Amino acid sequence: MSELLQYILSQQDQFRRARIPSLFSDFTAQKYSNPDGYHANVNIWEEVLCRAARAGLISGQDGVPRRLSLETGPYLLQKLESSEWGRPLAINAVIDEAILRRRMLPYNKFLALPHSIYSQSWTDYSWRWIAWGLEHMGLRQTSPSTDTRRSRELVLIPNVEEEAGKVLTHLSKYSSQVDRTFTVPMFSREAAAALNCEHELADKDLAILLKYLARDKQVLATDGEVVRIIHPSEMLSPITKEDRAIASLKSLIEHIGKQVRALEAQIASSNEKSQRAIESKNRPSALAALRSKKSAETVLSQRMATLFQLEQVLESIQQASDQVAMVRIMKDSAGVLRGLNAKIGSAEDVENTLDGLKEEIGKVEDIDSVISEAGQEANVADDHEIDEELDALLRQKEAEEEEEAAESTKQKLAGLQNGNEFEAIGAKQPIASRDEKPTVQKATAGTEMSEETSASGTVPLEREIAPSPISSRQSDGRREPDQAILES
Q: In this predicted structure, what is the pLDDT of residue 409?
């Protein structure tokens, strides 16, 4: 069992054991008898093939893994063959349906398209709708291809979209023109690093990625040898002489760097050989190793000097490129300021505007003062009415208090009259001698019991009277003047 088939069968969410026989059978006849089951099988095979390609498990006949393309035919069927279920007999039907839905495109057609894969002509849409209508009316029936020996090169559109997004995210860290310019091999290594590939991209995958980013996403420019990533602030433009010079210089620096590393390894190896020769007392071998070391050191010093000069040139180019970008930004900023100043006008216009603004503000203040004065007059009138109303309330309060005082006085006079009558009654009674203690009916302070005759009889009543002079005096054995008068 191949590694590809092991991966496919491990997808338990799709390749359940009860469904595997149906997926490996020739289910093309179900397109019209059982369309739901047919399209479900097609979708499962399409998704699992794209997923296996992204995992690097599908390769061409050259043995190089492909992530963005798929080569069908006997080679793929051999990789999918199972000892228990055989080969998938409807794999070509899956490919035909994917091409019809534009989830897979023939490799040559993808590269030759003059426009984006996302823009289709009215003719394409019209033919697809006509074909769909004829099939559903039963006037046109197309049987998917079952020729498993036919070999086709296909582009996996879902994989292209996903992997291109990863590459763009990786390249977004480069900001200067020098960093964003590559040769095609250098770009291939950058893309492989972005996709975590252990090897460089296959040639067809690289061509697909470059075409998609340049034509469909319009985020890079290329002429087949040089690649330049378009900065978001730049307009799409073709490759220039400056781009080619930068790419060549970077490629040369990379090449000399490899030579430097090789010379350093050679010097280390010659040094080890000379040490072993000296230990074994092999003078000729030691001399040869030392000569080789000396020669490598001489070449290394020359390469190091050349590499230093090239890196200085590249640094100067990068500095000049940054200055060009800075000047361009300053020019754009000057143009923006010029346009804004033109909208504002001259300084005299601004002064006139400010004077007019002050004048209008003064008018607003005058209007506010007039409105405030009118409000004050209204408040004065309101205050006069309020004062009159307050005086009326005070007069009413005083009248009520006078009435209450008169009523209280009247009640007091009535009480005094009742007290005098009581004293007169007491004067007619005989006064006890000094030796006898007068028997006095006790009553509460300030009250006297009297009787009133009513129809029902005599009812004692408690009447509040003013304390009389006689009742208020205590009998202390001395005759008061009033008592002497009564006795006489």
A: 86
Contact predicate 180/237, CB 8 Å = no
**What tokens were used for 18?**
């009860």
Half-sphere exposure of 91 (CA within 13 A, CB side): 25
Single-letter amino acid, residue 244: R
* Cα 155 versus chain centre, distance: 35
Residue 69 has pLDDT above 70, yes or no: yes
Per-residue pLDDT of 377-424, as tens digits, reads 555 556 677 778 888 888 888 888 888 888 888 888 887 877 665 555
If you count them, how many residues does the chain have?
488
Mean pLDDT for the chain overall: 79
Which residues lie below 8 Å from residue 310, measured CB to CB, with a gap of 6+? 249, 252, 253, 256
DSSP string computed for 470-484: HHHS---S---HHHH
pLDDT mean over 447-456: 38
Letter string b/e over residues 82-103, b meaning 16 or more CB atoms within 10 A of that residue's CB: eeebeebbbbbbbbbbbeeeeb
Share of the chain above pLDDT 70, in %: 77
Is 84 a residue whose pLDDT tops 70?
yes
Say if residues 203 and 191 touch (Cβ distance below 8 Å).
no
Residue 149: how many CB atoms within 10 A of its CB?
A: 8
Let me know how many helices (H) and strands (E) the chain has, helices first.
16, 8
Residue 272 bridge partners (DSSP):
none
Query: Residue 107, Cβ neighbours under 10 Å: how many?
Result: 19
Q: Tally Cβ neighbours within 10 Å of residue 193.
A: 12
Per DSSP, 86 falls in state B
Closest CA to 93 of 157, 44, 60, 160: 44
Question: CB neighbours of 107 closer than 8 A, spacing ≥ 6?
Answer: 69, 153, 154, 155, 204, 208
Does the pLDDT value for residue 294 go beyond 60? yes
Confidence band for 488, pLDDT divided at 50, 70 and 90: very low
The pLDDT score that the predictor gives to residue 111 is 93
Cα 358 → chain centroid: 45
The answer to whether residues 163 and 29 touch, using CB atoms and an 8 Å cutoff, is no
The tokens describing 266, both together, are 């050679």
Q: Is the pTM higher than 0.85?
A: no
Side-chain half-sphere CA neighbours of 264 within 13 A: 8
Give the C-alpha separation, 196 to 189, whole Å.
10
How much is the pLDDT for 343? 84
How far CA 171 is from CA of 93, 188, 205, 318, in Å, comes to 38, 12, 18, 17
Q: Which of 26, 41, 47 is CA-nearest to residue 103? A: 47
**Which one, of 3, 63, 77, 74, lies nearest residue 202 by Cα?**
63
